[in-house]
Design brief:
Layout (H helix, E strand, L loop, with lengths): L3 H6 L6 H16 L5 H32 L2 H20 L1 H4 L3 H28 L5 H5 L1 H16 L11 H6 L2 H10 L7 H6 L4 H12 L5 H13 L8 H5 L5 H16 L2 H6 L1 H7 L7 H26 L1 H24 L6 H19 L4 H8 L6 H30 L4 H18 L8 H10 L3 H7 L4 H14 L1
Length: 479
């Protein structure tokens, strides 16, 4: 489950100047002249953005992977991408090949794309509905832990020095090796074993490990009844899911939450924190330590959300998180625009950045992945995560590519763009998203039906009884 740590450890390397210097030195050796500023900017932008392209590739291959290998084995095999990526980036300076960093970032993106779909899928299928949200927040907690770990390792006292930066990339291997050592001892998803592999004995052993009891006949019987109902139902493709009229509002909610997850502006802060803090008037010596505080805030906020999510619910945390981000983005814009008027505004800008990060991690940071798992039955879940992954990584690429130009064009008003996106997302979710806390799949479908137009409600009332029975059976076990 620690596969999300290597996903974000690369982001913590904020000493981009060292890498840019390496790019320039490599270019000079290769072509006998310095690289132009435009070419250097292009290479750096490509290095940042290609991670999202790799993530998109990972999202596209995760559905066949989890279907063939299973959830746990997919996570286990995925570590090969992280290890290969770490080796490419760690030895790039020694080899004098700048393309190794770009290729390593791409391969690292594939690892992230697979992880961000396979891990939430696995967690949702092993979680009883009473702790489904809290356990689902592990995804967000791992992301925050990866960011924070990378930030610590990137301090000047550790690997944040010019001659040590390749070793920081090499540290990605450590969590991957830990996962390779731990995952084989965890059981596969019992729902996958029963519903997709028809392996009753393996599912029984998995239930016994997860539930800590020897008699799991009741759980086995429930899923066997569901399998009997779904005998002729195969794992749905993305096209089949998109054509399912009974799931169109669920799909729309997934698309909006995933788009807002990336376009809300937090990735811009993660990628460009140093520039933002410099604009707030902080000295270069202070920046690494102030940046470290962002990772600590992320972890605390994600843990706080995990404790609250089963009490408060998904909807208030998600909408409230976006709403708070709107407020603090506006305050941040005012502070950065007027920071020359008073010294204390510079420090208020830093507080706003921390508040934006905390607001994100409380709700939008992990809940979109939980909702994607809760909205769909077993047969449609892989396709749903593929759709979510495609939206996620396309929007990630857009932010990484366009934010420098938005910042250059709008300057201190650039964050108003993200405030507007958060406001639109919060408004849509307020109108269209039902609460899913401790609800079965059938209850979630009914909640969506109540939010539809009368014609759509009528359509929902006429779906096949066998399909409806199948969803009820499935939800009684997992949800």
């Amino acid at each position: 489950m620690t596969s999300l740590v290597p996903l974000v450890a690369v982001r913590s390397q904020r000493g981009g100047n060292y890498i840019k210097k390496f790019y320039n030195e490599t270019w000079e050796r290769r072509y006998n002249h310095s690289i132009t500023e435009q070419s250097l900017t292009l290479l750096w932008t490509l290095s940042v953005s290609i991670f999202a392209i790799g993530g998109l590739v990972g999202a596209l291959i995760v559905t066949p992977a989890v279907k063939y290998f299973g959830r746990k084995r997919t996570l286990l095999l995925n570590n090969a991408f992280a290890i290969v990526a770490a080796l490419f980036m760690a030895f790039s300076q020694l080899a004098g090949v700048l393309e190794m960093i770009i290729l390593g970032r791409f391969i690292m993106g594939i690892d992230g794309g697979i992880s961000l779909s396979a891990l939430p899928m696995y967690l949702s299928e092993i979680s009883p509905k009473q702790i489904r949200g809290s356990l689902g927040q592990i995804t967000a907690i791992f992301i925050c832990t990866g960011v924070f770990s990378g930030q610590i390792l990137g301090l000047p006292e550790l690997f944040g020095q010019e001659f040590l930066w390749p070793y920081l990339f090499g540290m990605i291997i450590v969590p991957s090796v830990l996962q390779i050592g731990v995952l084989p001892f965890l059981p596969e998803s019992p729902r996958f074993l029963l519903l997709e592999k028809n392996d009753t004995k393996a599912a029984e052993k998995a239930f016994q490990k997860f539930l800590g009891k020897s008699d799991v006949s009741h759980e086995i019987e429930e899923v066997l009844e569901e399998r009997q109902v779904q005998r002729n139902i195969q794992v749905a493709s993305v096209f089949q899911l998109l054509c399912d009229n009974t799931k169109r509002w669920q799909i729309l909610n997934v698309v909006v939450t995933m788009a807002c997850y990336q376009l809300c502006g937090l990735n811009a802060i993660w990628f460009y924190t140093n520039d933002i803090f410099k604009g707030a008037g902080l000295s270069p010596e202070m920046i690494p330590y102030v940046t470290l505080s962002t990772g600590a805030v992320e972890i605390l906020a994600a843990l706080f959300s995990g404790l609250l999510i089963e009490r408060v619910g998904r909807r208030p945390l998600l909408i409230g998180g976006f709403g708070l981000m709107v407020f603090f983005f506006v305050i941040l814009t005012l502070c950065m625009s007027l920071q020359d008027q008073a010294v204390w505004l510079q420090y208020l800008s830093v507080v706003c950045i921390l508040a934006i990060i905390a607001s994100f991690c409380i709700g939008p940071g992990g809940i979109p992945f939980i909702l994607t798992a809760e909205f769909f039955p077993q047969s449609q879940r892989p396709a749903a995560f593929m759709i979510a992954g495609i939206i996620n990584w396309l929007c990630n690429f857009i932010v990484g590519l366009l934010f420098p130009f938005i910042q250059e064009g709008l300057q201190t008003y650039c964050f108003l763009v993200f405030a507007a996106i958060c406001l639109v997302g919060a408004t849509f979710l307020f109108c269209a998203l039902p609460e899913t806390k401790k609800k079965t799949l059938a209850e979630i479908n009914q909640a969506f039906a109540k939010k539809k137009m009368p014609l759509e409600i009528q359509e929902m009332g006429h779906f096949d009884p066998k399909e409806k029975s199948s969803e009820v059976q499935e939800s009684n076990f997992c949800h």
